Amino acid sequence: MEILDVSFEDYCKIVKNPFCLFEDANFAKLNENKVDKVKYFIFNNGKNRFGLIGGLKANVLKFPFSASFSALSEITSKNRIEYYIETFNSLISWAKENSIQKIIFNTPPVYYDISHISKMQNALLTCGFNQSEYNLNFEFYLKDFDENYLSNIQRNARKNYNNAVKYNLVFEKTDDLSTVYKVIKQNRDEKGYPLWMSEKDIVETSKIIPSDYFLVSTPENIPIAAAFVHHINNEIVRVNYWGNILKYEEYRPINFLSYNLFKYYKEQGKKVVDIGPSTNSGVADFGLCNFKESIGCACSPKLLYEIEL
């Protein structure tokens, strides 16, 4: 398998259908200031098989360098497992020739494409990568949102949703990003969590990855919870950020928000709402894990691989 280090322009011409919008070359270009250099690779064994975008910083090659996960983008179909192994071996050879010290590869949750991701993960291990983190990702399958949803979720979540309804909260999809961002930032500040994106970052990212903004407000029109959601592909949306203002915790607005998000995307014909991981370097946040399970989410592995060269 030959590895081709190509330009941004050539990559765009060759890779017409990236694995998801995180793998879009324009998304990488938008975030190129976060690394020393963005690398656009094509893997060819007589045919162009895969594309892959990584970021090089301080002699470490990262996939991804500014997203939740990374995956090979298939240029041709029906790729055999040996092609995956040859691909990663050629990547390792290129890295050694270019004095790269380490490669880090963060793979998606398997439900994004079970066969493709499983072959990638097997190939990474076969080529000498170590699985360094086992993270838990949580997702809601919208086939489970039906007339029985409330009766099937955990009792505490059902109670919290019913409590929220008593406050006559209002859910809306909105174009008011500034208010959405303000609510989310206050939530992150109050909980001591970082907020990696500025409002400007969200605006620019939304030009590449279609995004939705949602608010939950009191009857007096006071915003108390918000969500920012990416459309990762035609079937899966991902909650990039959501949260509520702690002053209104007793209203249980996140239970109200999650219910209405599921309802909205079910009506839009989506298949999965990706809520994201609830682990930090593989260590579970019990509160987050328990909450996501309480509202009906399943969990799946999100695995990180590394190799020292």
Structure description:
The protein has 309 residues and is α+β, with helices and mostly antiparallel strands. 34% of the residues lie in helices and 31% in strands. The protein has helices at 8-14, 25-30, 81-97, 114-126, 149-152, 155-166, 177-191, 199-206, 253-267, 286-294; strands at residues 2-6, 37-44, 48-57, 60-63, 73-74, 102-106, 130-141, 170-174, 211-217, 223-231, 236-244, 272-277, 279-280, 283-284, 298-308. A hairpin with a 5-residue loop joins strand 9 and strand 10 (223-231). The model has no long low-confidence stretch (mean pLDDT 95).
Main traits of this protein?
309 residues, alpha+beta, 13-stranded mixed β-sheet, two-stranded antiparallel sheet, 10 helices, 15 strands
The quaternary state of the protein chains shown equals single chain
Structural class: alpha+beta
Please tell me what the overall shape is: elongated
Determine the N-to-C terminus distance: 20 Å
Number of helices: 10
Number of strands: 15
Pattern of helices and strands: EHHEEEEHEHEHHEHHEEEHEEEHE
Instruction: Give the biggest beta sheet.
Output: 13 strands, mixed
What is the gyration radius calculated from CA atoms?
A: 21 Å
Q: What is the gist of this entry?
A:
The chain is an alpha+beta fold and 309 residues long.
Helices, strands, pairings?
Layout: E1 2-6, H1 8-14, H2 25-30, E2 37-44, E3 48-57, E4 60-63, E5 73-74, H3 81-97, E6 102-106, H4 114-126, E7 130-141, H5 149-152, H6 155-166, E8 170-174, H7 177-191, H8 199-206, E9 211-217, E10 223-231, E11 236-244, H9 253-267, E12 272-277, E13 279-280, E14 283-284, H10 286-294, E15 298-308
Parallel strand pairs: 4-6, 11-12
Antiparallel strand pairs: 1-2, 2-3, 3-4, 3-5, 6-15, 7-12, 7-15, 8-9, 9-10, 10-11, 13-14
